[in-house]
Design goal:
Among the domains are: 59 residues; 67 residues, no CATH class. A hairpin with a 5-residue loop joins strand 3 and strand 4. The protein has 7 helices and 5 strands, in the order H-H-H-H-H-H-E-E-E-E-E-H. It is 60% helix and 15% strand. The chain is rod-shaped.
């Protein structure tokens, strides 16, 4: 018996193509069996050929199945890689946007920093001028207000000295001094002091300050009096014993020891 099987082989790739190529020689060998061999044992030959054919079909089926599974797995991996690429592209876009925003903010901060540096430089010049004018003002003030602002005036840096305090601290210091001086200047202040009343004598006197520019004093016995005024050399006093009565009367009025009335007092206008 001569059994011939004709099998069509479709072009394929991968493992399926390899299996088809392996099966082809086997079929060729089967076709080359001689009639004499088949006549010696016809059943055995047919059985052998059938078994080989079944095995070939099994291999082809397995290769097809493996190829389909491999293709699905490959497609899944391709899809996963594509999703990862898309995710990376989105992250790159977000990162580029963040970098652009950061660059914009950095430019804004640099511009703000330059503006603040310019403002600080201007403020530094301003505070130096204010401190100098405040030092000049302190020299002209009467003793009571100078003593009152001494804790602040001691913080004023000497001209040209290195300054460690911040600009805000220096401004607060100057403002504190000027506020105290302004308050004193809007008031009439009575104080008790010890003054040189001439002849090498000192006596306790009552002093009256009309703001920071004009002042008077009178001794307790009403015999010695003086007038003070603010000038470039400081707050200076001049004896005015001839006006002791009027100054003493003004002191009594301010102390509510006498009714209010107009009192003529000497004054210096500069």
């Amino acid at each position: 018996m001569h059994l011939t099987r004709t099998t069509s082989i479709r072009p394929a790739w991968g493992r399926l193509g390899a299996a088809a190529l392996l099966a082809l020689p086997l079929l060729l060998v089967l076709e080359q069996r001689t009639p004499a061999q088949d006549e010696q044992d016809p059943a055995a030959g047919s059985r052998t050929v059938l078994e080989q054919w079944v095995e070939t079909e099994r291999l082809l089926s397995k290769e097809r199945r493996d190829w389909v599974l491999g293709r699905e797995s490959l497609n899944e991996r391709i899809g996963l890689v594509q999703r990862e690429i898309t995710s990376f592209e989105e992250r790159i876009t977000e990162a580029e946007a963040s970098i652009a925003e950061a660059d914009k903010k950095r430019e804004e901060l640099v511009a703000e920093n330059d503006r603040l540096k310019a403002a600080t430089s201007s403020l530094s010049e301003t505070i130096v001028e204010l401190e100098g004018r405040t030092r000049s003002l302190l020299v002209r003030l009467p003793d009571p207000i100078r003593d009152r602002v001494k804790p602040l005036s001691q913080r004023l840096p000497a001209e040209g000295a290195e300054v460690k305090a911040s600009l805000s601290e220096r401004f607060q210091n100057v403002v504190g001094i000027l506020n105290a001086v302004n308050k004193f200047h809007r008031e009439i202040t009575l104080t008790t002091e010890v003054r040189d009343i001439g002849g090498g004598r000192q006596a306790e006197v009552t002093a009256v300050y009309l703001g920071v520019s004009q002042g008077y004093y009178v001794s307790n016995d009403g015999t010695a009096a003086g007038m003070g005024s603010s000038g470039e050399d400081g707050f200076t006093w001049t004896a005015r014993n001839d006006s002791a009565g009027e100054i003493a009367e003004a002191v009594r009025i301010l102390k509510n020891e006498a009714p209010a009335r107009f009192v003529r007092l000497p004054i210096t206008i500069q």
